Amino acid sequence: MFKHHGLDYKFRYHKAKLGKLASNYPGLVRYLKCFESGCPSEMFEGGERCSGLRLRVDIKKSTRRNQACRVGILKAIKDNRRRHEGIEEFMLINDKATIACEIPIWLWEKNMDIGVSGHIDILQIRQGRIYILDFKPNAAQENEQKVVSQLYLYALGLSFRTGIPLRMFRCAWFDEKVYYEFDPAEAKVETKKLYRKRGRMEKIEKLLIYLVYKLLEDFFIPKFF
């Protein structure tokens, strides 16, 4: 259990499924196991939250059926916070592709003393790809640009931390009715229109631009804490 931004996040991973499904991703295995000894909370207190930023990201969205949409617990629990916990626990135990929940992620540039952080709801490995899933109540009515921005930052962060190319990731958001998915490597980021403000937002813009271009090169070293 980690406490970040004043909220509790119950990080968990499934050892058996991680060992079976992530054998081709040693960087991901090491990253998840790092949290057994704790998490650097300072990375989550001084930076911006992924969910609070909004990049201009153009994607090719596809609508698909997924086990997450068919989980009856989504309909049984009305409180959104409890629904988050319920779906995460259910999928970690019962879904053969789900390997971890509430995974801490961050991007931090020491020279600029700025960063962004967040927590991935659900992490899966399916057909050789790593899926980043976010449960959103009323997913069809969500602000798509905001959700896409959040998931894209998650993918950037996990790619940077594990050394896994961005093309090996998929991002998705869902509820009990719909499931939307996109490929972050095919996303187009309008870097010239990220922010108009100076100071802190300007630093974040520079950080994100740097990471976007660095990660798309598919040539980097895993960054662990």
If you had to describe this structure to a student in words, what would you say it looks like?
This protein has 225 residues and is of the alpha+beta class. The chain is globular and about 45 Å long. Mean pLDDT is 78; it is low at 193-198 and 218-225. Strands 3, 4, 6, 7, 8, 9, 10 and 11 form an eight-stranded mixed sheet that branches. A two-stranded antiparallel ribbon has the order 1-2. It has helices spanning 15-21, 26-34, 42-45, 73-76, 80-94, 144-162, 200-216; strands at residues 2-4, 7-9, 12-13, 48-49, 57-58, 62-63, 98-109, 114-126, 129-135, 169-174, 179-182, 188-189. The protein contains seven helices and twelve strands. It has one domain (2-216). The two termini are 18 Å apart.
Brief characterization of the structure:
Helices cover 33% and strands 26% of the residues. The protein is an alpha+beta fold and 225 residues long.
- Classify the helix fraction into a percent range: 25-40%
The total strand number stands at: 12
Instruction: Give the mean pLDDT.
Output: 78
**Gross geometry:** globular
Strand content: 25-35%
Distance between the termini: 18 Å
Descriptive labels:
alpha+beta; 12 strands
Strand-helix topology:
Blueprint: E1 2-4, E2 7-9, E3 12-13, H1 15-21, H2 26-34, H3 42-45, E4 48-49, E5 57-58, E6 62-63, H4 73-76, H5 80-94, E7 98-109, E8 114-126, E9 129-135, H6 144-162, E10 169-174, E11 179-182, E12 188-189, H7 200-216
Parallel strand pairs: 4-8, 9-10
Antiparallel strand pairs: 1-2, 3-7, 5-12, 6-11, 7-8, 8-9, 10-11
